[in-house]
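User: Can you help me understand a structure? I only have the sequence.
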Amino acid sequence: MIQVDEAEKIILALAKDYGQELVPFEQALGRVLAEDLRTDRDLPPFNRVAMDGIAIRYEGFAQGHRTFTIKSTQAAGDAPAVLETATECIEIMTGAALPPSADTVIRYEDLEIQDGEATLLTEHVKQGQNVHEQGKDKKKYDVVAQANQVISPALLGIAAAVGATELPVKKLPKVVLISTGDELVPVHQPPLPHQIRQSNSYLVQAALQQYALQPDLLHLPDDLSVTRMHLAECLQQYDVIIMSGGISMGKFDYVPQALEELQVEKLFHKVKQRPGKPFWFGRHAGGTLVFALPGNPVSTFMCLHRYFLPWLEASLGISGKSGLFAALSQEVTFNPPLQYFLQVKISVNEKGQLLATPFAGNGSGDFSNLVEADAFLELPAEQNSFRAGEVYRVWPFKRLFY
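Assistant: Let's start by predicting it. Here is the structure, written out as tokens:
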């Protein structure tokens, strides 16, 4: 049995870059940008009008003119009109391209328009006002989004603005989720009194979909030969196998034996933690990693967020959630010499600090609290009393801020 930080180091040491691929930008949400995104032209691409009003030559105002003849009206998207003299103006709308013959925009609020003429109601006019100059935001070929970040709605908007119809993204590992156990039945099948529905696979699948990862699903009975046969196939087809159940000390827990017979190197089995103590991790000679998680739902969920997702984030080259900390809102006692992952609700106090409020649970098989809780608070194994106000690392599994 090893410590939590030892398990973490072993797993993160095997983080791997799976390369990159091009995807249509509409399908890139949640993926990781593999290369810097650059502009294809200046932003804005022209001198952009920032207020509805009139466009003039400032020289006309400087010469003392306060009434300008409206020559034409220009909407956003229209080709720029032309001013022939300094006493003319163009009615112009926000977003339009400022005509090269004009240099200043006066807003409607500072004008009186009557009989085809615009008269100024203010003396406060500066040359170039209300104009968003070409290239002020970004010059052509400037970086507008750096690589190694999750593609957000805002980044997709920028991609559309610069004409990036395809985006280079980090390839995701090919993953299969395997549940085990004769007690499990398909979700749509009514269980007998001694059976339960398969839920862990969907729990894990949903968490991975938040990373745009679409794993395959497989269920195995408690049968050594069947387990060995399917695992042999999966070791050839997938980069990562995530298993749920079948790794404890029970008579029908065949997963460790099957993996050993298939020459999957065991890097550790059992971690000094609760929940999730039976966690098994290994590597096949072909490169496939095996995360064999305990079958209890809370154990599965905790190990996924504490070990697999940090490995995935490291493989994708993005910063993860391991830098978050929260203060306990009340005293907690936990006696076994194990790292304890406490389900907590996260809030923010008036000082801007994250507060973790514990949820009382009924063990690793009770996962109803996961619906209400926000995160796991990691409490160190070397102490058993944790006071209110003490700060510990937190592993969120729900969006904390909206």
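Now, to help you interpret it: The chain has a mean pLDDT of 93. The first strand starts at residue 20 and ends at 24. Let me know which part you'd like to focus on.
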